[in-house]
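Render this sequence as a predicted structure.
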Amino acid sequence: MTSITIAPADNPAKHPQPQLEGSGRNWQGRFKAMASPCEILMEGVSRAQAEEALRYAARETWRLEHKFSRYVEGNPVDRINRSHGKPVVVDDELSLMLDYAAQCFELSDRRFDITSGVLRRAWRFDGSDRLPEKSDTDNLLRLVGWNKLNWQRPTLTLPEGMEIDFGGIGKEYAVDRIVLDLNRSLPKGTSLLVNFGGDLACNGARTNGQAWVVGVEDHKKLSDSTETLSLRGGALATSGDSRRYLVKDGVRYGHILDPRTGWPVPEAPHSVTVAAPTCTLAGMLATFAMLQGSEAEEFLQQQQVQYWVQRS
C-alpha cells in the first residue's frame, strides 16, 4: 500500500493537507472538514484520477463549510445574521438551502427550525448537570421561528436579533454534492463512497459487485459499532446525542432541542440512523424522528424507510 500527500494549489493553510492511501485502482482519501473526519473511497480509478478527485472533494467541501458556517466572519450566513432587519439578497446555492429549510419547517410541524440555534446561548451540553433556567429559554424563544422571517427568493429579511444556522443540513448536502460531482467526473464504472463523520452516500455497489460494509455507532461504545450494514446504493445518516447531553437527577437531556419549547425533546432516542436515496433526505428523516421523541419509531414506519433506533 502506498500513501500520498495531496497539496491542492489553493488549499488554505488552515486546512491540513488531504491524505491518499491505497494501491492499484483502489484508494482511500481523508481530510478534515465540518468538524468531522471526511473519507472518500474510490475503486476502479488510477492514482492520478484519485488524486484529482480527492483534491476537488476537499476543496469543494471546504468551500461549502466556509460559505454555510455561522462561525465564519463575513461569509453569507454571517452577513445575514448581522443584517439588523435589513433585506439581504442571496445567490442560487443559498436560496436552495433556504427553500429546503422552509420545507423542513413545514414538514416537521415546526419542529425543525434553522433559527433555533440561538438557544445554544442557554444550553451547554457538556455532560454536566447544569440546566438553564426556564426563564432564560423562554426569553430566547422570541428569537426563534422560521415563520417570523420573510423569505421571498432571492431576498431574505431576518428580524433584528434572530440568526440562521445550517448546521442541521449542511453536512448532508455536502456529501450529496461530492458524490454527484465525482460520479460525473470520474470514469464510468468507478465505485465511490463518501463518508463525512458517519453521514455517507455511495453511487452503487463496489467494483466486484459486493456491497459496501458500514457500521452503525453504538452510543454506549463510541469507538465501536453495534452492527454492520450492507449498502449497494443510496445513503445513510445518523442523528443522536451520544456526545452532547446533560444528566440531572437521573434524567438525560440530549442536545436535540424542540424549537417550540426551547428544551430537549422528551423521550427522544439516543440515536436514529436512516437509509434513503440521498444523504440529505436520510439526515432530514433521522432528525425528524429524533424530534418526535417517543413516537420516533412510529414516524419512521410511516415513511417506509429502513432505520435503526437506539434507546438504551
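Summary. The two ends are 40 Å apart (CA to CA). The helical segments are 47-68, 76-81, 92-107, 134-140, 170-185, 279-291, 296-303.
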